[in-house]
Specification:
Layout lengths: L12 H10 L4 E6 L5 H14 L10 E6 L4 H12 L6 E5 L6 H12 L5 E7 L6 H14 L3 E6 L10 H10 L4 E6 L10 H8 L1 H4 L4 H8 E8 L2 E9 L2 H8 L3 E4 L1 H4 L5 E7 L4 H20 L5 H16 L1 E3 L5 E3 L4 H10 L4 E6 L2 H15 L4 E4 L5 H12 L5 E4 L1 H4 L8 E8 L4 H8 L11 E7 L4 H10 L4 H4 L2 H8 L9
Parallel strand pairs: 1-6, 1-9, 2-4, 2-5, 3-4, 5-6, 10-17, 13-15, 13-16, 14-15, 16-17
Antiparallel strand pairs: 7-8, 11-12
Helix pairs in contact: 1-2, 2-3, 5-6, 6-7, 12-13
């Protein structure tokens, strides 16, 4: 492929290959591992189709980019300004749920402008669960779809075929000439994740009109009964070579190890002793969970995850009662974290799944190292403050980035860090992989060390081992395996 304009940032060989294989196709998926630069490939796709298409009817005049809430502003503030060619006219606007007069005037001017070039509108995927977001998407599809491109960043956000936003986006995508998917891995739990994503691209690729027909072809099913309800349980998968052959012409897959010469990853653990109060509370909750398993043979995965979550909270020094009361427990975990920090240099990312931990860690770091040394990023952080946090960490003086991996673990570039500490892990394998790669990606020049805090003889051990072995805890840990996890006896004691 040849272009008649100056590409703003020089592509890697694998990015050129991805563009060459996809640019003449209306539907395509970039299944490129986190950190390999799939955002740039999409931006170069839009630029090329907006200026170089041989047939004027093939040109892109409008692009709708959809990304998770914690990521979509990154497209506006970083990805598009950094990679979109200055030689190609383009304007950018983004979705805002709360429509102020100033915002409405800005959006109206954006859509009414007759300037030549490409209009790029960025929305968060969560907006399509609302009537307002769905209506906006449908309007854009009707008005611009014929000469438009729609793309979903982190496309596993539409893997649930029953979800409202999935249904909305499938309907909207039908109107667009070009459709693109971006994700590090389109399969997070099972091959069934592929159905909705490829329905978005083009239903003819898979060739099934319904999810259940698709499931019947590629899943091994067994009818199960739970009380008055019956359902089909997936026991395994079949015909996967056939499935691979169907999607291969419409996808490009690349791993970091195959295309980038990145510094090494190093994994280690820090053992954290438990206080007597933690041991007592852990054993009480442990006994309750074991009793639940033994007396209710049909205990659900969410119920089991909830019990393990409460045990994990205890290990961090807090637990919520059934009434919603937060109990604080003496803990040495924060002290262990501070000891880790004293032993390393450079910038550090600290991940915890609990808001309670994030606030405590942020406050402790601010007390010891100064308020300017730390930024935080979690569910309660506003969109504006999220970008400020990224800027202060990547380009400013902030040494510590304390965050929830489910919120900040996707789409962000945090390559200033060379140490990552997991204070309390998320159970989701995809979240762990994504959060690891916030700093281990294009732009990282130093080896990265990953440190997991572990209380010996507790579920900490099992969680970390499972995640490092690439096992999705929510999908796998049931029955006898769950009993094994729960029956671990805490070995650490306060000294």
């Amino acid at each position: 492929m040849q272009v008649n304009y100056k590409i703003k940032t020089k592509p890697y060989a694998h990015q050129v290959e991805a563009l060459d294989r996809s640019v003449d196709k209306e539907s395509f998926g970039f299944f490129m591992e986190m950190g390999t630069g799939k955002s740039k490939v999409l931006i170069d796709t839009i630029a090329y189709l907006g200026s170089q298409a041989i047939n004027p009817l093939d040109r892109v005049e409008f692009a709708l980019i959809i990304a998770p809430k914690g990521v979509y502003r990154n497209w506006i503030n970083k990805e598009i300004p950094e990679h979109f060619s200055d030689e190609i006219a383009h304007t950018v606007c983004h979705w805002q749920a709360n429509h102020t007069k100033t915002y409405r005037d800005k959006v109206r001017a954006f859509f009414n402008s007759r300037d030549l070039g490409v209009k790029i509108f960025v929305m968060n995927v969560e907006a399509f669960s609302s009537a307002k977001g769905k209506k906006a998407g449908e309007w854009m599809a009707e008005k611009f779809g014929r000469f438009g491109l729609i793309a979903i960043d982190e496309s596993t956000t539409i893997k649930n075929h029953k979800a409202k936003r999935t249904k909305s986006l499938l309907k909207i995508a039908e109107k667009f000439k070009y459709r693109r998917l971006l994700t590090g891995s389109p399969v997070t739990k099972s091959p069934m994740d592929l159905y909705s994503q490829f329905q978005f691209l083009d239903p003819s690729i898979l060739g099934y009109d319904s999810y259940y027909a698709f499931q019947g072809r590629f899943a091994v099913l067994q009818k199960r009964t739970m009380g008055a309800h019956s359902f089909q349980q997936i026991l395994g998968y079949k015909n996967l070579e056939e499935l691979t052959d169907k999607i291969a012409p419409f996808t490009y897959r690349v791993l970091k190890k195959d295309c980038l010469d990145l510094p090494d990853k190093t994994y280690t653990v820090r053992h954290v002793p438990l206080t007597m109060e933690q041991i007592r509370m852990y054993k009480e909750l442990q006994e309750f969970a074991i009793t639940l398993l033994e007396h209710d043979k049909l205990v659900s995965t969410p119920q089991m995850i909830t019990q393990m979550l409460r045990l994990q909270q205890v290990l961090s020094g807090h637990v919520k009662t059934d009434e919603g009361e937060l109990l604080q427990l003496p803990t040495q975990r924060l002290s262990a974290l501070m000891d880790c920090i004293e032993e390393v240099s450079g910038k550090i990312i600290i991940w915890s799944r609990f808001r309670y931990d994030i606030v405590n860690i942020r406050n402790e770091l601010a007390n010891v190292y100064g308020s300017d040394s730390v930024v935080s990023y979690y569910g309660d952080t506003s969109d504006q403050d999220r970008q400020i946090a990224i800027d202060r960490f990547q380009g400013g003086n902030a040494r510590f980035f304390v965050a929830n991996p489910a919120t900040a673990g996707y789409g962000l570039t945090l390559t200033e860090a060379n140490t990552v500490i997991y204070y309390a892990n998320d159970f989701n394998l995809e979240t762990r992989i994504q959060s690891e790669d916030r700093c281990h990606r294009i732009g990282q020049k130093n080896p990265v060390t990953y440190i997991d805090l572990i209380a010996d003889g507790t579920i900490d051990e099992k969680i970390v081992k499972a995640l490092r072995d690439k096992i999705d805890i929510g999908a796998r840990v049931l029955g006898e395996e769950a009993r094994e996890w729960l029956k671990l006896t805490p070995k650490s004691q306060a000294v």
